[in-house]
Specification:
Structural class: mainly alpha
């Protein structure tokens, strides 16, 4: 049971490490565009959506290799631990 709990905890940490850069970038761009919309009184939803999408794609492109290597490492470790988890 402890091994299954440890695997669950490491999966949760992996999800946080993989998604945090994307979420942080989207949040910061959303905050900046919201402040610009507030200051300029230009309430155009397409500006915020497009800028968030572009920045998210850029961050995903720059961190995609890291995220993929982390996911592959976790999956390999999970398959190695599978006989222990099946007991």
């Amino acid at each position: 049971m402890n091994e299954a709990l440890a695997q669950t905890q490491s999966a949760f940490e992996l999800v946080l490490r993989a998604s945090l850069p994307l979420l942080a970038a989207a949040f910061l761009v959303g905050l900046v565009t919201a402040l610009l919309a507030l200051w300029t009184r230009l309430a155009e939803p397409a500006i915020g959506s497009l800028s968030r999408a572009l920045v998210t794609l850029l961050v995903l492109g720059s961190t995609g290799g890291y995220i993929a290597s982390q996911l592959l490492g976790y999956t390999a470790g999970l398959f190695r631990a599978l006989p222990e988890l099946a007991r």
